[in-house]
Design goal:
Order of helices and strands: EHEHEEEHEEEEEE
Number of helices: 3
Radius of gyration: 25 Å
Number of strands: 11
Helix content: 10-25%
Shape: globular
Largest sheet: 6 strands, mixed
Structural class: mainly beta
Strand content: 25-35%
Strand order of the largest sheet: 3-2-1-9-10-11
Distance between the termini: 52 Å
Length: 213
């Protein structure tokens, strides 16, 4: 079992000063093995905070990050392969067909993306797409009102990914569970020989000798 924190679109300190206190109480060190961040961390202090939760942190560059984070990351928890992007690469934003094309390009079973500040976890075309939303509920121009603060925990058990979404609604943390199972790869049959096997030649001469076969 591997427990992976999926988080992003923090926008600290430009839009929000910190993570919600009730989220911080949940994110205690020592329980989470890995962090996948969809970007827009925006300051080093927030990145260092994530490293206190788990030292294995993978961050991709968001459209407001000035750091040199990569545009995409791929991690493997056999047999599951996970890709991480910020999400602004998807046109239109959040479009599943566009995200699916990126997932195929990265050759992953699970694609984590952000940018919309809205949680989503859905299976599509045999793959699993997770958007953790904005952990701080940071405002976004295309959203009417304030987004709901959210993050996700993925419990990976072999081919099964159980995703728990944590949302801060009216001051209370609410949790939902979504499960994805990777289907086994189809077994490919070995190609059958097309040439007929040659017959074993008989021993020449009238005397019979013992066959080496």
């Amino acid at each position: 079992m591997v427990l992976v924190l999926v988080i992003g679109d923090l926008h600290i300190p430009h839009r929000v000063h910190d993570l919600p206190a009730k989220f911080k109480k949940l994110l205690v060190p020592g329980k989470i093995q890995q962090i996948l961040c969809t970007g827009n961390v925006c300051d080093r202090e927030t990145y260092e905070y994530l490293r206190t939760v788990s030292p294995d942190v993978h961050v991709v560059r968001g459209d407001y990050d000035e750091s040199s984070f990569p545009l995409s990351v791929t991690v493997a928890h056999s047999p599951i392969r996970i890709g991480v992007i910020h999400g602004h690469q998807s046109v239109p934003t959040g479009d599943l067909d566009s995200l699916n094309a990126i997932a195929r390009q990265l050759d992953v079973d699970v694609l984590v993306s952000g940018h919309t500040h809205t949680f989503q976890a859905v299976e599509y075309d045999g793959r699993f797409f997770v958007n953790p939303g904005s952990a701080t509920g940071a405002w976004i121009g295309s959203y009417n009102g304030d987004p709901t603060p959210s993050f996700a925990l993925m419990d990976i058990q072999g081919p099964v990914v159980v995703t728990y979404v944590y949302q801060l609604i009216e001051g209370e943390v609410r949790v939902e569970k979504i499960e994805y199972r990777k289907e086994p790869e189809p077994v490919r049959e070995a190609p059958r020989p097309t040439a007929m096997p040659q017959s074993i030649p008989s021993s020449p001469g009238p005397q019979h000798t013992q066959s080496i076969w």
